[in-house]
Amino acid sequence: MDDVGTIGCNELHAASQRDGWTRCHFSQSVPRGGGIAFARCFACVLLGDDTGSSLPFLSEISIPTQGAGNKLMTPLGLQVCMGGDDDLHFGPAMVNKLLAVAVLGGIGFVVWRYLCPSCHPPKPPVLDADEWWGPDHLKATRDESIKPFKVVFKPDMIKDLKDRLSRARKWTPSLEGVAFEYGFNSKSLEKVLQYWKDSYQFEAREKYLNTYPQFTTFIQGLNIHFIRVKPDATQGVEEEEEGRRGLIGAVDKASLIKEAKVQKKQERLKRIRERERSGQIKNLHSERTASTRDWSSLLNNDFLKYMQQVVPLLLLHGWPGSVREFYELIPLLTKQRPGRNFVFEVVVPSLPGYGFSDAAVRPGLATPQIAVIMRNLMRRLGHKKFYVQGGDWGSVIVSNMATLFPEDILGHHTNMPFVQHKCTLLKTLIGSVFPSWVVEEKYAERMYPLSKFFSFLLEESGYLHLQATKPDTVGVALTDSPAGLAAYILEKFSTWTVFDYKHLPDGGLTKKFTLDQLLDNLMIYWSTSSITTAMRLYSEDFSIKKRALKLENIPSPVPTWVLQARYELAFQPAGLLKYKYPNLINVTILDEGGHFLAFEMPAVVADDVFNAVSAFKDWHKNKAKEGKTEL
Amino acid sequence: MDDVGTIGCNELHAASQRDGWTRCHFSQSVPRGGGIAFARCFACVLLGDDTGSSLPFLSEISIPTQGAGNKLMTPLGLQVCMGGDDDLHFGPAMVNKLLAVAVLGGIGFVVWRYLCPSCHPPKPPVLDADEWWGPDHLKATRDESIKPFKVVFKPDMIKDLKDRLSRARKWTPSLEGVAFEYGFNSKSLEKVLQYWKDSYQFEAREKYLNTYPQFTTFIQGLNIHFIRVKPDATQGVEEEEEGRRGLIGAVDKASLIKEAKVQKKQERLKRIRERERSGQIKNLHSERTASTRDWSSLLNNDFLKYMQQVVPLLLLHGWPGSVREFYELIPLLTKQRPGRNFVFEVVVPSLPGYGFSDAAVRPGLATPQIAVIMRNLMRRLGHKKFYVQGGDWGSVIVSNMATLFPEDILGHHTNMPFVQHKCTLLKTLIGSVFPSWVVEEKYAERMYPLSKFFSFLLEESGYLHLQATKPDTVGVALTDSPAGLAAYILEKFSTWTVFDYKHLPDGGLTKKFTLDQLLDNLMIYWSTSSITTAMRLYSEDFSIKKRALKLENIPSPVPTWVLQARYELAFQPAGLLKYKYPNLINVTILDEGGHFLAFEMPAVVADDVFNAVSAFKDWHKNKAKEGKTEL
């Protein structure tokens, strides 16, 4: 077979008309976008005839400019004749065929495009905003009050706990040469339990856990616990009325704030004077971090003359975490920063069934339903529009909020993005063959080879599988045994902080956290006996009912900012995240940090959240300039 | 386009030669087996040219008998020309193409055949028969003695256990309307724990657990515990020297047995006289089952004049079972039966790491390595050849024994066959489209739809996933909390007995078992603190090292008999089992019974084992007749 020239579609047409049959070999130089050229682009083409039926795939089509007739010559030496002797006529029919090629080829393209559409995204389902999760007999209750709350470690509970810890049985020795590879190393466990029993200062830690103002309020049948911290601002602070752009101080609020500020200032001055007298003021200063000191020196600078906004931010924890994860982060978010004309009021709830929040009494409370509860909570606190941040289940819930209530969520910050949009999954698969199409080379090893990722996932998801199917079974032992609970929960703070910590005899537990920090979190589970109800969230969220909502395929228009730690359980680059978050503004990729990022690196998270919200504000401003007033 | 006739390949050839181009439409009447006809059969065809490259799929090819040349006309009106103007010639080339079609089609068939070969089966690996699993410092120990063993429930242990049970915390209430669907129902659990604490007769149960003679012996660094029960025979019994066919009584053994029998008979007569005096004899009679009474009436019949064989049988339990599973079965196997010229000596070991057997101190003791230990145990007891029976892990281990030591295993009986031979998996997949190719219609619903099976498997395998990855973590809680252990283990005796029991508020726990039976088994785990080491078997058996042996693809020549309960976790018909067990003699399919079959239906299992061994003996006899003397 001779290649006698390369022609484009038009030339083919013309040539065809001249001599009935035309031979052509398409090379790379053939312009793309046309019917047959398109075929080259996809390496195959569907050819159709007038009847609408189709001939299966021809990979490459050669049309020689000389030959016996209007034939398409395949590289295999089989000639495909266009037009026929008796029943097929050249001319318009031929053109039709070429068009058919274009159309059918186009269908392939459309199928691809359809799989990853920005057009026709499915609409979010409407969930019942009043769905009742508490006991039926409380349905008459319409208590919307916000009650103060304190963490209490009852002496009886402490005594019982210490007793259980001291009567622990002889733990099964770990296998020779094994650190955390088979789970929590029993030698290392003994040290943790010893500390819990003998060195953990229950009273002091209880006090610490009461550092911030805490409340409960009754929502959809459940008492929901939350921390609420308003900014530590002494001047120049105005609250931002939710969702409106710019500096807006509603008259009533402004006067209230002013009054509060005066009172706060007076109290602060009083405290400082008292400390000065008792000599504590020096310690107070030395406790400040370098960056705090830098800001302090700037606090009286000109920028503070501008009024500050207070913006509401919802922070959500996951499993096996708690509100404790945010204790180091909270002051960094509620403190004014140089160069920022806003500061946060943070609301940090315990998820339903976790710690101090009630658990549902009937099946069905999955992350979309928790999203409803959290939105109701924020509304009760007067925040109709607000920012959200989350990790672990918290990240799933804030993502659901951004999907279900895009009007209410001003911006969405997550440190555990895990998009399961069908296009993300498809592209992830394609990337396993061509990683560079999907992810920058330097991050490729965080995703690929997929076999490595799945192997890791398989190894680390046994707890998930069990909790998604039989949480009540394993929950009995974890409710009954503090040692068992410690092993079960703290294992995650080892491996999920740095994967390789599982090869360290002590699991590297205290490399990033203090035992006090870890045990504070554990105490929230132990003192409330909430491990079973917490684990049930896995069963609910992997249920058929929840999955039927298919939220993962509904893109959220809320501006989104992603923070990705080095040792987060899964990594997805912006190109994969965008299917779910089309308004993805930024992805901050860290070379360190693990799953419990707010707990481990609060300063990094705080900086990133400030950057994110600043960008969210700009985004809304630009939207407004564009005349889009939906936000 | 006109269809002007239907021709076969030869006609096509002839026609083509006549006029250069031939048109043809293949209809159903075209004979199959030829190149293009083959294409019809598969609805598409790969056509090759002389260069060896191929043209993608043409689904249907029309060759009109009249036309412009040697063209193949597609139903779309596109003519595919065979042979060319310049470089392709009709005739031999055309024949080559048709041959290519046949060859390529044939390759598909060969690939299929190759995947399921009986030729070239892989050979079993040779494992180290002396691999050391105990502490290094015991390596000098060469103690091969067999020591008597008694189960002891120490008063301290009982006291501590009751104390733990009485201080159990308030269990998390199950969700409304939920029975065992989220795991063990906490209301039901309370009743079990109450019984364990207040009604379980520790002393009596300890005594019961010592019903049979028990021993330990030191193998490969581990003390292995086992029950050994020789037949309850008063006359006509001879031991079968392992592996030899027919009635063989070694002189020394025969005299020893005679002596023992005389002694036993005297003791028995003495006991009966004592009972007659104390009036107990009546009760003794009334306790006998109907079938026992039937046999008793036959015991003096003619058949007993024939000498009986004592054949060694190894019985292996699994997780979360123990030797306790066989207590009801043992007397049924060691008692003479009418119509049988053999009776069993049973050896029932605790698996390493389970109950009263030591656990390995280092990684690597998976089911193939346990197979080595069990064979060493049987050899130590003087059984070079023996029969094996197992369920759960026991079934995996006896299957491994049949694969690794086919010379030693006289017959293999399993009540949990689960073949993972690649052909079995492939055929299972094919069966998901054509179930009737794989399984009888009445059993199809035990396998298909696959989605239902996988969904069930997913729901029921969380424990497996966790135990295969982090057994030491969850082991802490289960070692520390008897309530937790009860929930974790007894859940399996609910759902795995009848799947739908999980919808019963009490899990149907006492429908097939008494609480005493269930708690006996639990006590073996609790009193020995062996749950963690028992669960580690999952980690070892799913390890890369174990899987690399690929035992699942090595057929075992040992005659095999399968007993399949209605509610076993997986069902595979004979056609799927045969890839692994080519000498599969029989499959007994039950319409009832669950995973713990020997425990639940000992009489059924005993009958089936007698049938199986009888058939194994016939099989060996036939083999001998055929002059195959390998056994």
TrEMBL record, chains A, B:
Entries under Pfam families matching the protein: Abhydrolase_1 (PF00561), EHN (PF06441)
Domain Epoxide hydrolase N-terminal intervals: 146-232
Keywords, in A-Z order: Aromatic hydrocarbons catabolism, Hydrolase
Ranges of residues in domain AB hydrolase-1: 312-600
GO molecular function: epoxide hydrolase activity
Gene Ontology biological-process annotations: epoxide metabolic process
Similarity comment text for this entry: Belongs to the peptidase S33 family.
Protein name: Juvenile hormone epoxide hydrolase
Gene name of this polypeptide: JHEH
